Amino acid sequence: MMTVKSLSVRLRSGGLQIPLPINFDFLGFTHFWGKTRKGGFAIFRKTAKGRLAKTLKSFNDYCRKDRHKPLSEQYAMLNRKLRGHFAYFGITGNLKALKAVHSKVQKIWHKWLGRRSRKSYIPWEKFSQFLKRFPLTPPRIQHQYYQGHPLVNQ
User: Fold this and answer.
1) What are the residue ranges of helices labelled H in the chain?
2) Can you tell me the mean pLDDT for 97-102?
């Protein structure tokens, strides 16, 4: 089996050089070439920039519209939305983007809870205690695409 690296070495020895393909977006992911830990090339995936912005806008709109609902209702809906996001975008190599969504959703929720009335600003220390009572779903990789994983080899 010929890898991209061996192919480029073979072509370079013949005087030809093929550049690695450019990045492209497909199904909400940006697919790009990167180096593995062993030094080879592989295709990696991360959440597309536009899709990330659309997701955060959706969370912002929900928190803005429903900020006067009971906290338990908001908490349940935010966790449902986060679990759905993590279920789709939770693939190997995308944990950084998932953590970014998680922290930004916390900031968005803090912002809109502080705008429930004129006097309802919540200091961040108090909000972090509030998050201990109502913790948002932590980011998690749901789908692992490497050969060594036991679920792939079934």
Assistant:
1) 4-13, 49-65, 71-89, 95-113, 124-133
2) 96
If one counts every other C-beta atom within 10 angstroms of the C-beta of residue 99, the result is 12
Contacts 24+ apart (CB under 8 A), 48-54: 50/25, 51/89, 52/97, 52/100, 52/101
Neighbour order of strands in the sheet with 24-26: 24-26, 29-35, 41-47
Q: Are 121 and 114 in contact (CB under 8 A)?
A: yes
Which pLDDT score, from 0 to 100, does residue 3 have?
61
Cβ–Cβ < 8 Å for 77, 109: no
Distance (Å, rounded) from C-alpha 147 to C-alpha 137?
28
Task: Give the pTM.
Answer: 0.78
d(CA 130, CA 109): 11
Q: State the average pLDDT over residues 122-140.
A: 93
Burial class (CB in 10 A: 0-12, 13-18, 19+), 77: middle
Q: What pLDDT is stored for residue 95 in this prediction?
A: 92
In degrees rounded to 5, what are phi and psi of residue 57? -65, -40
Distance, C-alpha 21 to centroid of its chain: 24
Residue 39 above 90 pLDDT?
Answer: no
